[in-house]
Amino acid sequence: MLNKINFSSIYSKGVISLFKGSLWAQIIGLIGTLGIAKLYGPDFLGVFSKFMSLSSILAIFFTLRLESAFVLTNDENKLKTIFSSIIYTIITGGVIILLLILTFPESFFLKINFLRIYIVFCILGAVLKSIESAYLSYLLRQKKFKDIALSRIIFTIIRYLFQIGLFFFLPEIGLLLGFIITSLIILLFYYKKTGNLFLRISFNEFKETLSSNINLVSYGVISDNLNAVNLHIIPLLAGIYFSDTEIGWYFLATVLLSVPVSFISSSFSKVFFLKASEIYNENSQKLFLFLKNYTIRLSLSLLVPFLLFFLFSESFILIFLEEKWIKVGLYIQLLSFLFYFRAIYNPISYLEEVLKKNHVGLLFNISLILGNLMAVYIGYLEQSFMSTIKIISYLFPICYLIMISYFLITTYQLRFKKF
What is the mean pLDDT of residues 230-241? Predict the structure, then answer.
């Protein structure tokens, strides 16, 4: 029964597979993050933070959110056409951004405190992340949960091995290069698992793919890009006004806090999306009970780890890192409630697509980006990065709580809708 979240066996097995894969990936990632923090220090970690932020934003732009079409379509024959359309958008987007960056004068990069070569790396990283996202969505559609789980473990292990090894040869770009090499290896893994998915499609087929997913391409792209900007704007924008060291501290704090968030996102979010889509298509009146129980259980399961973060973060940092990292513990305490509510909302946000509420997600992300800009600007005026952190820590948990309530109310109203 849905009120007990009793997934069919394939979903139960899928969740368990992703759970195991994500658990090991997060444990390895936690150890690896502490290792590269000790090796590279906060300055290089700050540069890597900007790389990850910019490449994550560009990756959504490159795919136009078409990877979600794998889950939403009912036509198995269109899967390769969708994949090929995504590859075309990635290549087009990557070339356009690269040519644009090459036209900028060197003074621009000095002003933003980020070298041109780093941005070229960001574009390459975004292209690889985009293709990876397409493969992951395809594997999800095929219910290849074990392959997804295995890929997360492989990616995490190889990435940190390369990043640690490259520190002794190319410390300036070791973190960036290690990520890119690992992404290429993981794409080869996906290719071996899926075979050739790419087809030479006509312009009309590409156009039809875009038009049949116009809600994703219009509201979805804008909303998700704004969401990505919200998640990554602090390293990018604050990196102009504050030191790489402070951005490195902030990055480490967010990486540690993201362990449960990434764990939930990679283990449950996509499966939640798949199951919620099926429930809505079969009997939308049952969606509220599914969502309510899911939200309650997720909230309770996340409460303990985030309370531990809040209470013992400074002690944890002192045990595993040097005293120069102590500010990371304070950042974790301030940001813990924000990441708690974000972790709860992440899987629920897929209801924007299921319920065709992408415009609501768009308005929500616009409000968040305005809050981020305000926080960075006030921090700049006060010459205090801590002021920026405090504003987003107090303001954004309320915003996420409002959105969680909105979807609970919206799905509750579906129970009384006549069909």
Answer: 79
